[in-house]
Amino acid sequence: MHVAARTMIQHYHERTKHRLDRYAAGPDTLDWDMQPDPFRRFIGSRKEQLPLTADTLLTTWANCHTSRIAPAPFNRSSLGALLELSFGIAAWKQYGPDRWAVRCNPSSGNLHPTEAYVLAHGVIGLDDGLWHYAPKEHALEQRATLSPDRPEDRSHLWIALSSIAWREAWKYGERAFRYCQLDAGHALGAVRYAAAALGWCVHLVPMTQADVAALLGTDRSADFAGAENEEAEFVIEITRQTPSSPAPFAWTTHGRWSGQANRLDQGRRLYHWPIIDEVTLASRCMQPLNMPNAPMPLAIPAVRPPDPHSDQQRASTLIRQRRSAQRFDRHAVMSTDQFLAIVRAMQVGRLPWDAWPGTPRLHPVFFTHRVAGLPSGIWVLPRSDHGEALLRTTLSPDFHWQPHGGELPLYHLANHPALASTLRTVCCHQAIAADACVAIAMLADFSAPVQANPAAYRSLFHEAGLMGQALYLEAEAHGLRGTGIGCFFDDTLHDLLGIRDQRMQSLYHFTIGMPVLDERITTEAPYAAQDAQE
Ligand SMILES: Cc1cc2nc3c(=O)[nH]c(=O)nc-3n(C[C@H](O)[C@H](O)[C@H](O)COP(=O)(O)O)c2cc1C
């Protein structure tokens, strides 16, 4: 099984690379009126409205990065804040006849393939059970009660995620599986930051895909009859102190289930992408991804130095104001301090990386276009000793690996005076890559982990998505703005860095700069009707 799965993943990865002479296979035409419904519902399930409480959280951005906040109790109000700040609607946007929601978690093409579930036991004001989160209403839909033989002790809370690949595939075709996994990684980051604002800890529960599917009921085919199915991703444990709860997988199997999934695509499906089903199957986790023998991270200080710009800002404000820049001011210059603060946020051991198990396998390469005091050039931050060794043997032998100095293991690789036009080309000719102050490519230690366990294909994208979420929020905290870049010509970037094989692959790109706002787009409050009722 492993051999076939590995071959499948390598095949999928190569096949879904965008190349200068052809994009990965996708639809030839798009009927925008036939966009998949971004809001899943479970018809016939019991609904519970959640309170909108994020405004009451006073936690500052600086305090999010410490353990100084008293953990909030597990109750309906704090759960409402957690979900509002991780998956809730952040605003409604309107331009001409088009109206769309943006959420606290970003998503490729704003298509939102990620669905969030809550598994609650002993949360005050909420019945024990499995609940699906409905972001448009900020409400929960009950999917299952808990089995009566559940352990009776203290309260437990888990968030679990699934992906609906069709939502992404509708627009992006075969490459969509990658975007679903990146979005799931962003969602993990969104949960981590929201939990930090409540003083809570977060960690990934090692479980097989089959156990996650049984827990979430995504394997209950009758409940999804006639509707797009969901692929179980992972379970996140939320604790008020350090992680200690039992694995949750037996809890819902004997519960009472309710709800029928709605159909998201009302139109006629013009395209089907069987390779997405194949890579989904090949990358399922058959044994939990624990890497006890993995090399330890570099011993770099995870302490966050004081930052006068961001420290006193409220975390809940920063989280809800996060947006993707659609254009950047091409004359803006970012300071070295801003740049280094963003680099520092990639370090292991600090928020949000405390939620990530095992050794970091993603290593950011920074392209500094317009950073005051730094040349236009290429930099790398190895995030583990193993990563540094791999980077040194994989990247171009012409790179000179000049340490930046200071506490960060940041190396200058080369100057590159024509970065803007090169990166515009690499990033599918997108102007934001040229106009950003900094662009980032996330290089993964790729072939070895995937050979050892095909499920690593998903977890590498999750780690990249988590890195993207850290970049979005750090950019926002420093008065800048970010945009994730899923569209790039994979091997063109590899050529630029001298990468010749699959030992390292770039999985995701990112841009940071000074945004230019489009005044024609109007903004409305996320839950105006509900606000008015309260
Ligand atoms: C995985 C991923 C890939 C993305 N790729 C691109 C891209 O190539 N170009 C772009 O302009 N925006 C890209 N975005 C930004 C999304 O379009 C944006 O998140 C979405 O429209 C929602 O807007 P928001 O981030 O302001 O909430 C990407 C976002 C994610 C999460």
List keywords for this structure.
single chain, 534 residues, alpha+beta, seven-stranded antiparallel β-sheet, 16 helices, binds flavin mononucleotide
How would you concisely characterize the structure shown here?
This protein is α+β, with helices and mostly antiparallel strands. 29% of the residues lie in helices and 20% in strands. A hairpin with a 7-residue loop joins β14 (402-403) and β15 (411-415).
Taken from the alpha-carbon principal axes, the silhouette is globular
Major sheet details? 7 strands, antiparallel
The percent range for strand residues is 15-25%
**What helical percentage do the residues reach?**
25-40%
What's the total helix number?
16
Query: Which regions are unreliable across 5 or more consecutive residues at pLDDT < 50?
Result: 291-302
Instruction: Report, as a whole number of angstroms, the end-to-end distance.
Output: 55 Å
Residue-averaged pLDDT: 91
Compounds present? Answer: flavin mononucleotide
Beta-strand segment tally: 19
Structural class: alpha+beta
Strand order of the largest sheet: 2-7-6-5-8-10-9
Radius of gyration: 22 Å
Describe the protein.
By secondary structure, this protein is of the alpha+beta class. Helices cover 29% and strands 20% of the residues. The protein has helices at residues 2-15, 61-64, 76-86, 165-172, 176-197, 209-216, 274-282, 315-321, 336-344, 385-394, 419-426, 431-435, 447-452, 456-477, 490-497, 528-533; strands at 42-43, 47-49, 89-95, 98-103, 114-121, 129-134, 139-145, 156-163, 201-205, 231-239, 260-261, 362-368, 377-380, 402-403, 411-415, 438-445, 481-485, 504-513, 522-524. The strands form four sheets. The protein has a seven-stranded antiparallel sheet with strand order 2-7-6-5-8-10-9, with helices on both faces. Strands 14-15-13-12-16-18-17 form a seven-stranded antiparallel sheet, with helices on both faces. It has a three-stranded antiparallel sheet with strand order 4-3-19. The protein is globular. Mean pLDDT is 91; it is low at 291-302. The site of flavin mononucleotide (FMN) has 20 residues, from strand 4, helix 5 and strand 17.
